Amino acid sequence: MANIIGAVTTSHIPAIANAMANKQEDTPYWKPFFDGYPPVRKWLNEKQPDVIVLFYNDHGLEFFIDKKPTFAIGVADEYHNSDEGWGIATIPPVTGESELSWHIANSLVEDGFDMTICQEMKVDHGLTVPLSLMWPGNNYGHVKVIPVCINCEQHPMPQPWRCFELGKAIGKAIESYDEDISVAIFGTGGLSHQLDGERAGIINREFDLECMDKLVSDPEALTKYSNLELVEIGGAQTVELNMWIAMRGALRGKVTELHRNYHAPISNTGSGVLLLEHEMPSK
Q1: Which of 99, 162, 175, 187 is the most buried (most CB within 10 A)?
Q2: Which of 12, 125, 263, 278 is catalytic?
Q3: How many whole angstroms from its chain centre is CA 107?
Q4: In what residue span(s) does the Extradiol ring-cleavage dioxygenase class III enzyme subunit B domain sit (predicted)?
């Protein structure tokens, strides 16, 4: 049986990749942010997960406003990161895991999730920045990745409760996979931020910290919010919390917090990282 060993939450701001490329991790602006990651990298290097299931949102690279699936999953053997409009540097492709991907996709459809299943798929900074953060130097090619994309850009968007249910269904699917592999779950994006309009720059630190607490101890409390409430509380892009909520839904056993860090602002965003250890539920 596949074993979900733990989970990580992280921001996926594109400026992070630029800071790493320009060796700015120890500058006064970036150091409090990057200081949160060594314990997570150490854990990943010790545990050596075979597969990462990574919840993220596409920012218009693969899915533009004319075609926007609510939920999508990649089932390819490889994923490439393309230019998102600012001349992004070429980075190594991301290794996929097609067998487990197809198992999850089939299980999700059987459980009532009408997924968009992508046999070819470009991935953007929402997926590649977290991988580069965990394996600096873009040294992530050894780990297989299953991308799960949630619409956080164009209304109507899935509500927090539905994203939590998606995570639960993915956790169930992984548990039923008859291979002895270890899996880690990544929830990316957020926390509170708004990048445009009259409220641009809003950050709700108190709410961000409360979300991090609830994600560990009472995740279902976060499913009581609507997307509109998240926007009102923390800004338009706070709906990216839904990727964290989906991640937490996949952890159906005992969860223990190992590490956390929160820093704001980073690129007008409240940025948090959590490392959670997971014990599989008993049969």
Answers
A1: 187
A2: 125
A3: 21
A4: 7-269
* Domain span at 128: 3-279
Contact call for residues 3 and 183 (beta carbons, < 8 A): yes
User: Would residue 59 show up in a list of annotated catalytic residues for this protein?
Assistant: no
144-184 pLDDT tens trace? 999 999 999 889 999 999 999 999 999 999 999 999 999 99
Residue 207 neighbours by CB distance under 10 Å: 18
Number of domain units in the chain: 1
For the segment 178-209, what is each residue's pLDDT rounded down to a tens digit?
A: 999 999 999 999 899 887 888 888 999 999 99
Quote the pLDDT of residue 15: 85
User: Which tokens hold the place of 16?
Assistant: 């992070």
248: CATH? 3.40.830.10
- Count other C-beta atoms under 10 Å from residue 189's C-beta: 26
Give residue 208's Cα distance to chain centre.
16
CB 208 within 8 A of CB 9: no
Q: Which of 12, 103, 193, 278 is catalytic?
A: 193
Known catalytic residue: 125? yes
Cβ contact 186:54 at 8 Å: yes
